[in-house]
Amino acid sequence: MLDFKKNIRHGTKTDALAIANIPPISSQKIYHYYVLKRLVKLIIFILPVFYYSDSFAQDVTDYLQDVTCVNNAVKQQARSKELQKLANADQRDRDNWMRMRSPEIMAVSRNDIKRRKRVGEIFGEGCLKSANDYYAAALIYQHGDTPDHYYQTYLWATHAAALGNIEGKPLAAMAIDRYLVSIGKKQLFGSQFFAAGAPSPNQCYCMQPVEPSFSDRFRKKYSGYSLRERYDLLASINKGKDCLNIECNSQLQNTPKGSVPGLW
Known about the structure:
Shape: elongated
Distance between the termini: 97 Å
């Protein structure tokens, strides 16, 4: 005779099922039950996603068209025109640069900051698309205040050239020179001249030191100027003044090959 109390107290499953007259359940059936239960929960969770997916995709498309220039030709055209106006204003502000006094120069600097901010917003909207867009953005950023501004100019000008703007490479050359000098390195193309103090008609300019190992043949091909032609340009700026057309006495470090990825 079975001792039911003893078997129940010890928790023997087989005896407990026998007492209740319930046949034992196989582990395979238990596994199938839990799999089916999970599938039902998954279906309940996924159904709303399928229901709302079309609406969500449309919302994303509407957002991209409204806020960015993605698939929005009208907005793209408006931003391209705005970039050209900003670039024209940048150049117009500098028409009488050599005759400007400090308050006028400060006003130009404030305008430069506003223009750079606006270009950054347009870039954030994904609205730099054509060669002229990238060139205009680069032209504005070259009048920045930090090495990052100059390097960004170099990137945008290089891309403008790749898209077909013939002025892109000369601007890229000036930008990378400005960047290198700003971080204490010798320039490559000889585009950066320097004069101490505020701009004035009687200032003497000198050429910032140039990396001697950089190929003059490549310099001419890329920027349109050989080093000799850069010195001729310096002489024209200093014409009529008691100036020496020489390198500046700036203590800049060498810029060996490998300093500018993709260029030198």
